[in-house]
Amino acid sequence: MHAMQYELTLPADYDTGIVRARVARVGHLLDDWEGLAIKAYLLRERGAHGSPVNQYAPFYLWHTTEGMNAFLWGGPFQGLSDDFGRPAVRQWTGLAYEEGAAGAPARFAVRRRTPVPDGAVHAEVAVEAAAETARLARQDGAVLAAAAVDTSRWEIVHLSLWEHWTPKADGDLFQVLHLSAPGRSALSGGRQW
């Protein structure tokens, strides 16, 4: 499993209806993308749910680097780059994935990035990240939870999707505008090592 995210921080007075309309128009294009497990189309709006910014920040879980590369080098990412400018794309290696018990669609997401402390025992950090993923997935209203690591920055990212806007997780809160999940059922639960 590979995780990927880019962020488009928009002006404070930006009409986020433009992003909503774009997702409504093109979101379905990845509903059957080869190699994609999940794409959560995420939006934060300044002043809503405590957000200090307007930000469009899709988050992906990939089964294959081939699918990810096809998206970045020959797919819809070109259209986004043409419309908004090419953003930096962050990538993480998967550590853990868990399905939640919520039967409703994901309406909100929480993303938390935390540094791996200098001197930490790497195996212990990975086990803790997997345990936190399982804890999040067991919470009321959880749709799914995942953890991944960027070893170039030694940073853990946790993503959890929720059916309601009062998630039991800390981090940046986003609205889920659409969820493409062609390979979700094939994601292996538990730790990824």
Structural notes for this entry:
The chain contains 4 helices and 11 strands. The model has no long low-confidence stretch (mean pLDDT 96). The protein has an 8-stranded antiparallel barrel with strand order 1-5-3-10-7-9-8-6. With 193 residues, the protein is an alpha+beta fold. Strand 8 (142-150) and strand 9 form a beta hairpin. It has a single domain (2-187), classed as Alpha-Beta Plaits (2-Layer Sandwich).
Keywords:
193 residues; alpha+beta; 11 strands; Alpha-Beta Plaits
Give the secondary structure arrangement, pairings included:
Layout lengths: L1 E5 L1 E3 L6 H10 L9 E9 L9 E3 L2 E4 L2 H10 L2 H8 L4 E11 L8 E8 L6 H17 L3 E9 L4 E8 L9 E9 L9 E2 L2
Antiparallel strand pairs: 1-5, 1-6, 2-4, 3-4, 3-5, 3-10, 6-8, 6-11, 7-9, 7-10, 8-9
Instruction: List how many beta strands DSSP finds.
Output: 11
Number of domains: 1
**Percentage of residues in DSSP E strands:** 35-45%
Overall pLDDT level: 96
Order of helices and strands: EEHEEEHHEEHEEEE
CATH fold-type name: Alpha-Beta Plaits
Poorly predicted sequence stretches spanning 5 or more consecutive residues: none
Q: Tell me about the biggest sheet?
A: 8 strands, antiparallel, barrel
Q: Radius of gyration, rounded? A: 16 Å
Spatial sequence of strands, sheet with the most strands: 1-5-3-10-7-9-8-6
CATH architecture heading: 2-Layer Sandwich
Shape: globular
Q: What gap, in angstroms, lies between the N and C termini?
A: 10 Å
